[in-house]
Amino acid sequence: MRGFRWPVRVYYEDTDAGGVVYYANYLRFMERARTEWLRSLGVEQDRLAREQGIIFAVTEAELRFKRPARFNDALEVTARVIERRRVSLRFAQTVLRGDELLCEGRIQIACLDSAVFRPRAIPKELLKEIVDVD
After folding, report:
1. Structural domain range at position 99
2. Residues with a known catalytic role
3. pTM for the complete prediction?
């Protein structure tokens, strides 16, 4: 999978009573990868909110779990834009341990006006930077 890649280490706090990564934490890993993807484009979300009055919010998430991750595993989380619209982006994301697929997901985010939480167009300068769309 081409696109952005971000390393993640599994900490004890990420695991459940069975010693595997708690299912909701895969969403956290994916969120971090998307945040770092934006940062790699020179975009800081706190600055977007403060200077342009926009935030991004997840509007849809679909995950498929394939294999468990465990404490101290070194993982890689990928993020690739597969759909780009005026106010939303859809990502394909994976969580890998080496070449082994552990979890895959489709995440949609919307650009919102931070004052009223209504959809707002993604800034044109940011849209120009997004080149992963298949």
Report:
1. 4-129
2. 16
3. 0.92
